Amino acid sequence: MILLLRLLYAAIFAAMVAITIWAAYHENILMIPPLVLNDPWFKATLFDAYFAFLSFFLWICYREKLLLTKVLWFFAVVFLGNIAMSLYVLIALYRLKPGDGADKLFAKQ
């Protein structure tokens, strides 16, 4: 199970980095057309994403002890989204000891 999760989150991380680099190469994020910015579904999707980021960040707060670590991960999640989130899970997965199950992934550190 842990190996499958590692592969899954490594694939998510790689895909998100690749698509972000591709998109940045094609268009500046600050140059999004007003038609897109004013679209109701764009706004709904943005709210959906940031509420998911907040939910994930609350899990980080549950797991992490140090305030500085929480603050750094907050900014990483807000600015990098799923890139930071998949990286956090990968780090957590690789910190598990041999024989640990997925239940340890959700435990406090």
Give a structural overview.
- The protein is mainly alpha-helical and 109 residues long.
- The protein has one domain (2-105).
- The protein is built from six helices and no strands.
- Helix 1 runs antiparallel to helix 5, helix 3 (40-63) runs antiparallel to helix 4 (67-80) and helix 4 packs across helix 5 (82-95).
- It is globular.
What does this entry show, briefly?
With 109 residues, the chain is mainly α. Helices cover 78% and strands 0% of the residues. Helix 4 packs across helix 5.
Large-scale geometry: globular
User: Quaternary arrangement of the chains shown?
Assistant: single chain
Q: What value does the Rg take, in angstroms?
A: 16 Å
Question: Total number of helical segments?
Answer: 6
Query: What is the total domain count?
Result: 1
Beta-strand residue percentage: under 5%
Strand tally is 0
SS content category: mainly alpha
The mean pLDDT is: 92
Report the major sheet. Answer: none
Task: Write the element-wise H/E pattern from the N-terminal end onward.
Answer: HHHHHH
The percentage helix is over 70%
- Uncertain segments are none
What's the N-to-C terminus distance?
20 Å
Features:
single chain; 6 helices; mainly alpha; 109 residues; globular
Secondary structure elements and their pairing?
Blueprint: H1 2-26, H2 34-37, H3 40-63, H4 67-80, H5 82-95, H6 102-105
